Structure formats: C-alpha cells, structure tokens
Amino acid sequence: MKFLHVSCLLLLAASVCGCKIEFTIPQHGQVESASRTYVCNAGDTCVVDVVDAFFDEVFVAKPVAGYSFTAWRTKPNAFCGGRQSPCPLSTTLFFGTPLMQFLESDSTFFLEPVFGKSNTWSQRAGMGIGGVGLASCTIRGKIYATGLGWGIGAFDINLGRTEEYDPVSNVWTPRAELPTPRAWVTASAVGNKCYVIGGGENGGPFSPPALTSVEEYDPRTDNWQSKAPMPQRREAAGSAVLTGKIYEIGGGDAVWWASDPLAPVAIYDPATDTWSEGADMPTPRKGLGVAAVDGLIYAIGGSNHELGIFASGIVEAYDPVADKWSSLASLPADRNFLSAAALKGKLYAMGGLIDSGDLPGANLPASNAVFRYDPKNNQWTRRKGMLVPRYGAAATVLDGQIYVIGGREFAESTAMEVTEEYTP
Length: 424
What we know:
Low-confidence stretches: 1-17
Strand order of the largest sheet: 1-7-4-11
Radius of gyration: 23 Å
Oligomer: single chain
Number of helices: 1
Distance between the termini: 31 Å
C-alpha cells in the first residue's frame, strides 16, 4: 500500500487531519491527478491523507491501449460513483456541507476506476437459479434481479425469487422474495427503490391473464411494499425512467398466445403513488425493448401480432414533454423478447427470439446479436455479440457497463443463470 501525504493546515478551526482517500487500481490502467502530484499504478492501492483544508485536485483514470475507462466504482463511501468523467475533489468546496463533516471524521473514502476491454463481453457469476421474463434494478452499486424461477417449457418453479449481485465480489445473494410471484415484469429504480410492475403469475401458454400489481423494494430494509396498481393489466411490457417517473409501454394480456399487443403508455409517479396516461404508441407491441436517452424513450422491436412468437424491427421514440411519438430507423433484424439498455448517449438492443415465421410450438432459437443505435444520425451498427444467445433476459447498466442476466437460449429450453458484462 502506498501513502501519499499533503501538509496539515487548519482553517477557521476546522481540521481535516485524518481523512483518507483510498485508491484501488485494477489492471489495465492507472489514476493520476491533473497536477500529477498523485499517481497510482495498475494493481496498486494508494492512500491520500487529506490534511489540507485547501486540497483541490482532479483525478483522471487512464486505461491502457485496447481498454476503456467506463466509470468510477459505485460503492459505500465512494467518491464520484457512476461518474464517467474525471473526478474533482476539493475541500475548499466542502465547508458548511455534510461532506465537510465526513472530512473531519477520520473516515476513509474510496475512489476506484472501472476498466474493461473495449467492445467485449465477459462472463460473470451466475444467479442461484435461472430466470426468463425477469427484470432488474441497479441501486447503490448493486444489481437486483427479480422474477426468477422458470422451469422447462411451460412448467414453472418459482417466479418470486429475488437476488442481489455485487460486481466487486462477483457474488449473487438471495434477498426477500417478490410478494406476488410473477414473470415478464418490468423493474425500474427511482429514489434508491426498485418498482416491479405487471407481469404474469405463470409464464406458460396456459397462464391466467396478466396482472396490474406494483410492488416497491427497499434494499436497505430488504422489504417489499404494495403500491397503487396499474390501470391496465399487462406483461412483457417495457419500461424507462425520466425525471423521477416510470413509463410503462406496450405489453399484452398474455405473452405467447392469442392476446393483442397493447399501445397505451402508463406513467407512474412514485412520489405521489399515482398513475397517469401518455399518448398511445403508434404500433402496439409486446416483448419489446425500452430505454431512454436524452429525454426521449425508445421502443424497440417486439411482437405486433397477437401470437407473441412473431417479431418485428419497429423502432419508435416517445417525447414525454410533447406527448408525441415519432418513427425511426428499424432494427437491422426482427427481434422479440429482446433486451435494451442506454449507455453514454446510445441505445443497445441485445439478443431476442429469432422470428422464423413458424407457428407456435416451434422451439425457435434466440440470437446473441447486439446492435447499437446512435440518435444523432438515426443509424444502427452491429457490435460484438453476447457469449450466449438468449431472449427474455434482464439488462441493466452499472458503472458504465451493461449487464445481461438470465434468459433462455431456445423458446422452450431451460432458463439460464448466466450473467454477462459488456464494455462498450
């Protein structure tokens, strides 16, 4: 462990002596301050003793060739968690703030860069059990996956299983089960809580109608709480968060069989526990991917047929301020039950069920293809494919990387526990 020191000063009787910033540097990069006073190399742990009330530095993460800096690690007592740019730290800005109290507390704080090989997928630890039609939230540096527990074909095991993933330790841990067991849900994080919405009690072809259930999960207490139900039943919908509100888009009353896809947009406000309506999506769909970039919500692919086995490549964008939709460049390949995520101003569409035109009952394969959309030029480009083809997987973003969780490789295969991590 390396120790870096700054001379001790007092200012207005406020001492910051004893506060430490610990840098843990993974392989494939280093961290240095803009002034080059501090340099911490790959594989090292360095400590800065902040004993100067005028401490003012900007820390820059520098990857080696072929690798990318994705973000600063999000974890307890970490500075700049999730930030994808240099981290400014200045005690001169802390006086009169809670952060100044931290600096006076003899505590240790952390600054850790995340590096990854560019345009590369890597396999991470798998969940305790598999899941398809599951969903996930990212809160305080952890990933929460819920709706786990599909069996083979139409036979289900337990659709209420919830697990927490820690990317630092690469470990999944069981958490409190979803009170209303269901799959083909959406999950959205607002205010450090996860909202699990809709879904079906049984994912098989003879399932009862979709649900209106909304349940809120608080990771700090490991407790669930029921909230105001959706105005309309739906499963296999997509969701995105903008300005603290959750937008539920599309879906159907059933996943696979004769159920018309839905067009309505339902908007949930966790602050008031109320629902409102947005303009209908022009092309009703279920099994679509949804993600938000720069104030717009994108609805990607999915099935616009009552039989959910048929896929489309339709892409439409919703502007919540104008309450209007617009059509955009289609996905390069028709996909259903795909996963979508937004990262660094771009959209990623991943996997999904391949539409062969066969009737229901065919054990259709999933795709491992990944497409990236740039809203600035309205174009899709192909990126490196996932290690494992899958549909019905959850996707989430943490510290500048995309995680794809669970899913199935074929329409009627066993649900997977597999977790993959993507660095753009």
